[in-house]
Amino acid sequence: MAPNCETCHNQLSTNEYLARLYSFSVANPASLSPQTVLTSWSTGLYTATDGGLSLRSAMVLLPSHWSTRACHPPVSGRPPAPPTQPAHMLISPPHPVFADAPWTQQSGGCGRQGDFIQMGVGFLESANTSSAHAVRAASQLVGEWGKYRWGLFSEAGYAGDNLYLPWYRQGPDWAATVCTDAHAGPPPCHPDHAHHCSWPPEAHRNATSSLLSLPNLPQVTKFCDSKTHNREAPTKQNVLCGRRSAWEVMLEHPDFKAK
């Protein structure tokens, strides 16, 4: 697709990554500008990595039937040649399983870069409706970037999943499959099964981690480290990364070793 695309090249005033996004089969370019969410994503990335990493610039490849006049700010001069490397992120119609939510294809394994991040058109459209929506969308993308770039995995459980259970036994009590720095005690559950477990409203009120567990909460901006990591929970992160925390895996990556 790349040779048939026009290119918008937006410089962001930060200092680390070049993000490549490919947009395809999208009908309405006016509501799809990624500038706001990418700027928020860079800020979120900077916070999540304790000031270590952020976004330097972004190259967005658009379908050939779009005019470069749709770019905001407009392209000045001759657009740069389309990159020859694969995209980091794909913008697409809704996925049959994930709908518009961002998701990561990760076939590299723990600590290794994955294949790509994909998100639906509606995800960016929603992010552009307000600054609060942009920040929340950016938090989700920071978590997905962790999966894609650093080989991290989800720290949440899934209803109906027999391997990555949403609740698990912790001694005599049920505990949620989650990694967080906020602990509100065991949730109220049936003593014999966890089918009707629920978190009390205050459970995550003071949580700041983890982006791999609770990326939809506006106050969650961090990954779990060796002090906050839940090594007992049946999460993908524990199973595939030898019960190491996100930060323990990240610190082995060249992005952080180079610092």
What does the model show?
This is Putative ca-activated cl channel protein. It comes from Penaeus vannamei. Pfam families: CLCA. This protein has six helices and eight strands, in the order ββαββββααββααα. It folds into two domains: about 1-150, no CATH class; about 155-259, no CATH class. The chain is globular, with a radius of gyration of 19 Å. The model is unreliable at about 1-15 (pLDDT under 50). The protein is of the alpha/beta class and about 260 residues long. It starts with 5 loop residues before the first strand and ends with a helix. Helix content is about 20%, strand content about 15%. α1 crosses α3 and α2 packs across α3. The strands form two sheets. Strands 1-3-2-4-6-5 form a six-stranded mixed beta sheet. Strands 7-8 form a two-stranded antiparallel ribbon.
Which short descriptors sum up this protein?
259 residues; alpha/beta; 2 domains; six-stranded mixed β-sheet; two-stranded antiparallel ribbon; 6 helices; 21% helix; disordered N terminus
Q: Mind telling me the C-alpha Rg?
A: 19 Å
* Average pLDDT level: 80
Class from secondary-structure proportions: alpha/beta
Classify the helix fraction into a percent range. Answer: 10-25%
Order of helices and strands: EEHEEEEHHEEHHH
The main β sheet shows up as: 6 strands, mixed
Count of the domains? 2
Number of beta-strand segments: 8
Which strand order does the major sheet show? 1-3-2-4-6-5
Low-confidence residue ranges: 1-16
In what range is the share of β-strand residues? 15-25%
**Coarse morphology:** globular
